[in-house]
Amino acid sequence: MNPLLALLPPLAAIPFILFFGERHKNLRELSIFIAGFVLLAINISIYQDYLEHQNVTSGSLNIFQGLTLELYAEPIGILFALLASFLWVVTTLYSIGYMRGHHERYQTRFYICFAVAIASVMAAAYAGNLLTLFIAYEAITLSTYPLVTHEGTEQAKRAGRIYLGLLMGGSIALLLPAIIAIWWLTGTLDFVAGGIIPADLMNPMWMTVLLALIVFGTGKAALMPFHSWLPNAMVAPTPVSALLHAVAVVKTGVFLILKVIVYIFGFNTLQQTGAASSLVTVAAITILLSSMIAMTKDNLKARLAYSTISQLAYIVLAALLANSVAVKGAGLHIITHAFGKITLFFCAGAIMVALHKKMISEFDGIGKQMPYTMAAFFIAALSIIGLPPLAGVWSKLAISEGAMVANEIWVVGVLMLSSLLNIAYLLPIPIRAFFAKSSEPNQATEIREAPLTCLMAIAITMLGCLVFFFWPGPVLGLLALVR
Amino acid sequence: MKYLALYNYWIVVIIMMAGFYIMIARHNLVKKIIGLGLFQTGIFYFYVSLGKVDGGTAPIFVESLEAQATVYSNPLPHVLILTAIVVGVATMAMGLALIVRIYEKYDSIEEDEIKAIERQHWQENNGEFGISLTAPPTASS
Amino acid sequence: MLSAHLPAFIIVLPLMAGPLCVISRHSFISWLIALLINIVVVFMSVAIFFQVSDEGVIRYALGGWAAPTGIEYYIDTLNATLLVLITIISLCTLVYSLPAVDREVAKHRHYLFYTGWMLCLTGLLGIVITGDAFNVFVFLEISSLSMYMLIALGSERRQALMASFRYLMMGSIGASFILIGIGFLYAATGTLNMIGLAESIPNVSDSRTVLVAFSFITLGLLIKAAVFPVYSWLPNAYQYAPTAVTAFLAGTVTKVSLYIFLRFFFQMFGSDYSFGKLLLGEVLLPLSVIGFFVMSLVAVFQTDIRRILAYSSIAQVGYIMAAMSMATHEGVAAAVVHIINHAFVKAALFVAVGCILYRLGNAQVTSMGNLIRLMPWTTSAFIVAGLSLIGVPLTAGFVSKWNLVNAAIDIGWWSIVAMVLISSLLAIVYIGKVIEAFYFQSASEEVSNGNRAIKDPPLMMLIPLWTLIIISVYIGINGSVVVDIANVAAQQLLNGFGVSLETVNTVVTGSSK
Amino acid sequence: MTEQLVIMVLLSFLVVIAFGIILLKDLLVAVILSGIYSLTAAAIFVVMDAVDVAFTEAAVGAGVSTIFLLGALTLTRRQQKQQKHNNYFALLVVTLTGALLIYGTLDLPGYGDGQSIANQHPQLAQHFLQKSEDEIGIPNVVTSVLASYRGYDTLGETVVVFTAAIGVLSLLGLRRRKREEDPELDAKRQCRQQNEEV
Amino acid sequence: MVKGLQQHHRVLQVISKLFIPLILLFAFYVQFHGDFGPGGGFQAGVIFASAFILHGLIFGEGRTRLVMPPYVLRFLMSFGVLLYAGTGLVSIMMGGNYLDHSVLSEDALHGQHWGIFAVELGVGFTVTAVMITLFYCFSSTRP
């Protein structure tokens, strides 16, 4: 199946969304569901195609001088596409409850931008060369900008400015020159198994600079010091924070880094030159520092945002270790973290809708009001921390293993320390919710759960955390195909 | 001797530069236009000097002269300069018309005064400098 | 047989359209005349373009006098492309101008407006097509004079008059310098034909006369092209001219000056002389870099959209100049690419602003509130073109910037790469400022009072706007169209005229006189 | 040599006039001076054998331009404002430009050099002088070049003039006179109407 | 200025009435003798216009307008340009290049004569009309 088809369902949904508009809300959201399921089906069939032929590609469109636009399915991309399209359906389910419960304005614009963003994510996932990936990356930035600034308040506008400035600025000032340099050096931008940059092409120092340009230029990966857009972007409606800023957008960033390391530099080059080793330190520092910052945040979404930064750095770190075991860990972590973090965000949104509470300090006793939500929160938090029987454990294990393979034992220590920090900033929330005395006694016993669709979405993603612990086979099988 | 033959050019340069100076240094708009005229006339001399041939005559064939071996001056610079003169007068007319309108609107033909008026205007409008005075788009038809 | 005379028709038809408009003295009829002629001219320019790409360089001897005795047209890929570019932009903005001019210019002056427009078109095409150095000056004056007039027609605001006068002064100084330069060249070589000059200049390249000719032509062209230190005529002219004129001006006038730059310095003087011997690159490069950097910065602090775009135009000229000053094949090609792309993009942006002005009555960033919902087609066009200005992929601007950066990397000018990218970031800021206002500014008083119908402008304005946008997006997606042309043009430019006077690859030369 | 002397004297005279124009505050005097300047220029052109140019300069520079300048002055004001300080930057620019120009003249062929490349170019200057009688057949070579060899430039020139008229028309327009301003004119109009009726 | 002349300068009026025909005559001479002596369309146009300008200065621009109304001028200046450009088109129709006068007649020399005549006439028309129009524009504007 042609990967180009994956772009169609979200784009095709747009006219329907526009047409139905605010007047026929149900039909509007139905059309999104249909698009979501079709997209999921397409992605699954691409997956199956890939397992059979291992050569799934669209035609290429020549821009100029051999620069082409091309879509091409490969394991990490398929995994990412499946993840994003599945969670799109779930998020849509969630946002029906959330957006209506929250009486948000301009819902039509919201859904349109969302659809465009998903289409761009599909293009990124199936990008056949670095240029296509870059274009998709920019398209995601642009299409999510209206989502970040959705509320139109002064704070939202400021966040939008930071968002656009860091993501677009970083990509144009750092990433683009790196891409042009790669093109100039090698004459191609194609993703090739084993990489296109030979180890002896240039001085290792320059290689490090080039890699640093890419790693830092990919602002979406939120590596410190290019992280500040992410906490700011939390002013967006929660479904946006959940799908885009825990999954699609940020994962596009780490996905780009992953692809560049696997298919542009290649493991051999990086291992021989050691170009990535200094950047591993940066990732490690990001992991620890952002975990510590997360502890100081009282706003739940802000705390989750810093947690996301820390978890993204895991993936970047794994990618920079540059061996197949670590990359497998990175791929796994994209999946497991996605399910864990989206559940956490969903819960945060549910609390906002039901109780209008944003601050953790106000959460005393809400476990009695929203038992299901908080239970799901607890489970997802455990998954993020990496405790069995939850999915998070596999990815942390694989990354640690990768670190051993790469002979960077200290990284394992960092991971351990970080897990402890995870416990320190995540677990107090459910504990407080369940065991602390409520400050508003007369309401404490009344059950005020979030809308049903929200709960359904939360349940699905929470189950995901469990399922991938017991049944990680297909994911691992796919990742084993990465060459 | 060589430099004596260039003396003409140097005077021409002085004339041109006198005009150029008026154009950029004088605030009076009419003066600027006069300066432009001087500058351009200087260029005209320069061109015509190029075509002059010692002992030559104007490039018009006359029967009586044809018998002798006559030297004629080069006609090409003359033609070019005829064009340039016309361009000059056209520019001048345009400039003067602009000046007349500027005087109507600003009641001044001094560049620094006009700048001051603009600045004042700016301040009065508190930064709303560019608000259009074009016909307001009422009930567009 | 007539196809051989296309180069003559393409100049003469718009030239004759001017007087016809005057005779008609009717606002609509004169527009119609201008429009029809413009459509014909677009087709002709396309035909010439294909003629050139099929059969090679066209030389057309005017009056039947073979050059250098007479004047000739010299058309290669570069100016054939520019002919197409100018005629298309003129057509788009002319269509747009019917409703816009109706609003902005007094009714009894409409016919003069369209006359001026046609004369300006004649002038621009004449500059581009000619192969004679002095003829460049004559047609430069036609286009300049009509431009002064068109700008001054925005004189419902008095600033337009002053803007026009300043342009007249600067323009006259520029033209006079060019005239002096051509005079010195004539003194040194005895010819005015560009090919003749190209052949003679190497023989006298040590002469101080040629050096001074070169300097004066450079200075004159710098003024005409609004390069950094001598740009002061441009912002006011762009802001206060009638919007249709601004769009036309921004798309074509500075580009034509840049074209003369290319033609003169690479082909006529030869890049060995201009850049090898006289180090023009070393002079231009700092100017252009400071230019695009400082002007982008200045644009950030403007409050009127037209002023933002005007300063951005100066910055873009800086990019083109920087590309030229590399004096390599890639650099020249990048310059040509950006000349073409920026022409379309800037014209589109100014048309979009014109549409906003048409409904809103001003172009202050502060009064753009809520426009994205009231004028979706206009604002989205602005956004697309704005992204192109930034250089986002899949827009024309990306193709330009890619080529520019690549050309800079090619000769190891990493600092230039950095500067270009940083000034692109400034472009994000100034375009982002406008886009943010479209989205989030609360509606200004006039808008929210509801006593004005703020909605998308009539189709007459939207169609040309979106035509320009589609062209620029098409270039962004299928950039090889422009890049291939630019490569051919760059090759031709750097090869000099390639043909000596004896081996003329002529389509029509003089008869055997 | 006498010729050269005449030119030198006249040119020096021009320099004096030019500086007079720079310094004078009275615009009317400046305009009259520029008229004299043009007339002197015409005289110099005659001495330089450029009779057509001289003719044009006299008609345009001394005639029409002066009338336009006077017209503009009556519509604006006559005095130039006192400028507070000299513009040293402008002086610098002008000096540099002038120095550059003089530097460029050093390699020019001397004034009146019949052997210079410009005057000897076989396809331009010499072609016009030697062949125009056979090819065009009119005695005034300037007219031949103007209207035939470089007729296209002259077309451009005509268009420039036309453009100027369009420009001035669009700026000033032709405003109708009010009747009471000129009773005599009114009488004439009536007279004409009567004639037409008859 | 104009009014003063009108009322008090009978002498000027009489003399100018004598001179204007002579100026016009001279203009015609310059126009048609340009082939043989100095002068041509442009100079003739200016001189022709100057006769009208003189008339305007002495008798008032309003009265000159009766003699030479603006619409005639507008037509004349356009016609001049069209005549010039049209001559070139005729050359193309006769099989030559644009503005190639030699094809206008059987004999190349005659063709050149015709062409130059037409072209100079075009210049003359345009310049005359333009100069008079410019004069009208300046003199009809009230301070």
UniProtKB/TrEMBL annotation, chain A:
It is found in: Cell membrane; Membrane. Keywords: Cell membrane, Membrane, Transmembrane, Transmembrane helix. The chain crosses the membrane at residues 6-23, 30-48, 76-96, 108-127, 133-150, 162-185, 205-230, 242-267, 273-292, 304-322, 334-355, 375-397, 409-429, 450-471. It is a multi-pass membrane protein. Residues 127-420 form the NADH:quinone oxidoreductase/Mrp antiporter transmembrane domain. Pfam families: Proton_antipo_M. The keyword Nucleus does not apply. GO terms for cellular component: plasma membrane. Its main location: membrane. Belongs to the CPA3 antiporters (TC 2.A.63) subunit D family. This is Cation:proton antiporter. It comes from Candidatus Endobugula sertula.
From TrEMBL, chain C:
GO terms for cellular component: plasma membrane. One of its GO terms (molecular function) is NADH dehydrogenase (ubiquinone) activity. Residues 132-426 form the NADH:quinone oxidoreductase/Mrp antiporter transmembrane domain. Pfam families: Proton_antipo_M (PF00361). The chain crosses the membrane at residues 27-50, 81-99, 111-130, 136-155, 167-189, 209-231, 243-266, 278-301, 308-327, 339-360, 381-399, 411-432, 459-477. Keywords: Cell membrane, Membrane, Transmembrane, Transmembrane helix. It is found in: Cell membrane; Membrane. It is a multi-pass membrane protein. Signal peptide: none annotated. GO terms for biological process: ATP synthesis coupled electron transport. Belongs to the CPA3 antiporters (TC 2.A.63) subunit D family. This is Cation:proton antiporter. It comes from Candidatus Endobugula sertula.
UniProtKB/TrEMBL annotation, chain D:
It is a multi-pass membrane protein. Coiled coil: none annotated. It is found in: Cell membrane. InterPro entries: CPA3_Na-H_Antiporter_A, MrpA_C/MbhD, MrpA_C/MbhE. One of its GO terms (cellular component) is plasma membrane. Residues 119-179 form the MrpA C-terminal/MbhE domain. Residues 13-78 form the MrpA C-terminal/MbhD domain. PANTHER family: NA(+)/H(+) ANTIPORTER SUBUNIT (PTHR43373), NA(+)_H(+) ANTIPORTER SUBUNIT A (PTHR43373:SF1). This is Cation:proton antiporter.
Automatic annotation (TrEMBL), chain E:
The chain crosses the membrane at residues 12-30, 42-59, 71-94, 114-138. Residues 11-133 form the Na+/H+ antiporter MnhB subunit-related protein domain. It is a multi-pass membrane protein. It is found in: Cell membrane. One of its GO terms (cellular component) is plasma membrane. InterPro entries: CPA3_antiporter_subunitB (IPR050622), MnhB (IPR007182). Keywords: Cell membrane, Membrane, Transmembrane, Transmembrane helix. Pfam families: MnhB (PF04039). The keyword Membrane applies. Its main location: membrane. Belongs to the CPA3 antiporters (TC 2.A.63) subunit B family. This is Cation:proton antiporter. It comes from Candidatus Endobugula sertula (Bugula neritina bacterial symbiont).
